[in-house]
Specification:
about 80% helix
């Protein structure tokens, strides 16, 4: 694997840390600004919506410059947003800083996926994408608990300052290690939008929304479920989230290794397994050991879908993969927001803290149904050129320079 992938992984680590660390620092931030916890929760919602909006907009604008330069601009935007958050004199400014940082999220992973895939041979693309996403999974194992600890011990502003410094390291790494990549030839908004006329692209994105939504239906409300139902202490929740991060890391390795060999069978297995684990979680949640195992499996099965789904979008959006890839990253966050909202509805309806798992099971099962539909549609449709074979792209995916 090229060293350039390490630079992309460092950027992903910083982005993953700033996205999730906020959940552990909400009480401190709310107290500092004199707002309620629900109001402070807007820092999470605002970030997610910023990802959904920023992914397509900045990716389209990025077609006017080289991919390497765009990655550097995105990391600069990420650094700026975190610096604003660290220095924010009011809650409104803090929220603005979160939104600014989030705008870089979707485009970074979308463009980064295309760049990562173009750095290796065609049969190694999913592995390269997984290597970049390793930074995101390690963020949940190391970055989030460490950032939470720093924020609680020294102050939450220090956490965001450290994250901004990570962004600077990622920016310098991209500048140093990512090879020169000229602006994609013939890249036009109309051409990029044609990818969305392909039903397979839309089906892959729908699988992303529903599949990863299943994960976040459970994880968003993991703290009250583990403390009120399972009987864990509040302090144990941090380490349970670390366990979830370990599962994400293992799932990412699994997805990266097997997506290049058997993409659709992998999706069948992971989405089906995720639906089963989530359906059983309301029962498993009453035992501490079984609940911990379930958290690990949810992270592993959920994140094992990321490399294959991202690769499938790249393959099906032949000739115009960049915008589709970035929008698919936004789809992950759309799934997060949808699942969190639905999970909150069933809790508010009086079904208890374990009920969001049923929502997650339904979402994952729906994603599995879409996977079977996608495969059936593909069998009935004449094979179309993919990112490996499309004219004008074949050379791009075989050399470090993308055209």
């Amino acid at each position: 694997m090229p060293l350039a992938l390490i630079a992309l992984a460092v950027g992903a680590f910083g982005i993953g840390t700033t996205e999730f660390v906020i959940m552990g620092l909400l009480p401190e931030i709310a107290a500092d600004y004199g707002v309620t916890i629900p109001t402070a929760g807007l820092l999470v919602t605002g970030y997610a919506l910023g990802v959904v909006i920023g992914a397509p907009v900045l990716t389209v604008l990025g077609n006017k410059v080289s991919r390497k330069r765009m990655l550097m601009v995105l990391m600069g935007l990420f650094v700026l947003g975190n610096v604003v958050s660290a220095l924010a004199p009011s809650f409104g400014v803090m929220l603005a800083g979160r939104v600014v940082a989030s705008l870089a999220h979707g485009s970074f992973f979308g463009i980064g996926s295309v760049v990562a895939a173009g750095l290796v041979a065609p049969d190694k693309k999913a592995g390269a994408i997984a290597t970049m996403f390793t930074g995101l999974t390690i963020a949940n194992i190391v970055g989030v608990p460490l950032g939470t600890f720093i924020g609680q011990a020294v102050g939450w502003r220090t956490t965001f300052a450290v994250v901004a410094a990570l962004g600077v390291v990622g920016l310098l790494g991209i500048a140093r290690l990512v090879p020169a990549m000229p602006r994609p030839e013939g890249a036009r908004l109309r051409g990029e939008l044609t990818a969305f006329r392909n039903p397979q692209v839309l089906l892959a994105m729908a699988m992303t929304v529903l599949g990863f939504g299943g994960v976040f239906a459970a994880i968003t409300y993991i703290a009250p479920m583990m403390t009120e139902v399972t009987g864990y202490s509040e302090g144990a929740v941090t380490w349970l989230l670390v366990l979830f991060g370990v599962g994400m890391f293992l799932g990412n390795l699994l997805g990266g290794r097997y997506a290049d060999r058997a993409l659709m069978p992998l999706l069948y297995a992971t989405l089906g397994g995720l639906a089963v684990v989530l359906a059983l979680f309301p029962v498993l949640a009453h035992d501490k050991i079984l609940a911990a195992v379930a958290i690990l499996l949810v992270g592993a099965l959920g994140f094992a879908t990321v490399p294959p789904l991202q690769k499938r979008v790249l393959d099906q959006a032949h000739g115009a993969p960049t915008l589709a890839s970035a929008v698919n990253i936004g789809a992950f966050n759309l799934g997060n927001a949808l699942a969190a909202w639905l999970g909150g509805l069933v809790i508010a309806a009086g079904f208890g803290y374990t009920s969001p798992n049923w929502v997650g099971a339904v979402l994952a099962a729906a994603a599995l149904g879409l996977a079977f539909w996608s495969a059936a549609l593909e069998r009935r449709t004449p094979a179309a050129p993919t990112a490996d074979t499309a004219d004008g792209d074949a050379a791009a995916v075989r050399t470090p320079v993308l055209h």
